[in-house]
Write a structure and sequence with these properties.
The protein is of the alpha/beta class and 220 residues long. The chain has 8 helices and 9 strands. It is globular, with a radius of gyration of 18 Å. Bound molecules: zinc ion (ZN). This is Phosphoribosyltransferase family protein.
Length: 220
């Protein structure tokens, strides 16, 4: 066995390990074992949000996926971007939207929050999709200029007010006349991703904005 490959596999066990439940098994397909696969339910559902051409989320919102997203965002399980990225990739193929996308970006978090967390969860997934689809990614261009209270602690009215004027674009050339895919981890009311789309269209002069997210707690 190649020595460095061996070390890599010790540090980053992938073959034969499910990245969602960490159980060693050969029954793994794209980082996910069949047990975990049975706990996720694809919906690939489209919802209507202002400023967005199309908003799609992949999975039914259940306790299983809720916990994985919590671990990913708040408990340093950064490597979960891989199975979660694969889930979104399947939705992109299913909905056949890759042909429309010129550039991929993500909902930015405040740089102070990124410094504390060590990563932006949506940025990691956007990077994964960019590589897999061979579509360029825009990083650190759509930025968050205000520190906001977590949206999940507010009611609907306050969420919309909380998010106004929070995002800005540093250089609009990158988005001009492009069809943009924005990645968010979870859509709660849609006010965050909708505000991002507004800025991408108005400041960035983008042509169309699509949003993709793992799941949504929205009551339909
Ligand atoms: Zn598993």
């Amino acid at each position: 066995m190649n020595f460095f490959k061996g070390i890599n596999e010790l540090l980053f066990p992938e073959g034969g390990v499910c990245l969602l439940c960490n159980v060693e098994t050969d029954d793994v397909d794209r980082y996910i074992c069949s047990y975990c696969r049975n706990n996720i339910e694809y919906l690939n559902r489209e919802i209507d949000l202002s400023y967005l051409e199309k908003t799609i989320y992949s999975l039914f919102y259940n306790e299983f996926i809720k916990e994985k997203i919590y671990l990913y965002k708040y408990e340093n399980y950064g490597y979960l971007y891989k199975p979660l990225g694969e889930i979104l990739l399947q939705t992109i193929y299913e909905k056949n939207i890759m042909k429309d996308i010129d550039i991929i970006t993500y909902v930015p978090i405040h740089r102070r929050r990124k410094a504390i967390r060590g990563y932006n969860q949506s940025e990691l997934i956007a990077g994964y999709l960019s590589k897999k689809l061979d579509i360029p990614i825009s990083k650190n261009n759509l930025i968050r200029i205000k520190w906001t209270k977590p949206q999940n602690k507010l009611n609907r009215h306050d969420r919309i007010r909380n998010i106004e004027g929070v995002f800005k674009i540093k250089d609009s050339i990158e988005f001009m006349d492009k069809e943009i895919l924005i990645i968010d981890d979870i859509i709660t009311t849609g006010s965050t991703v909708s505000e991002c789309a507004k800025v991408l269209l108005q400041e960035g002069k983008g042509r169309k904005v699509y949003a993709l997210s793992i799941t949504s707690g929205m009551k339909l």
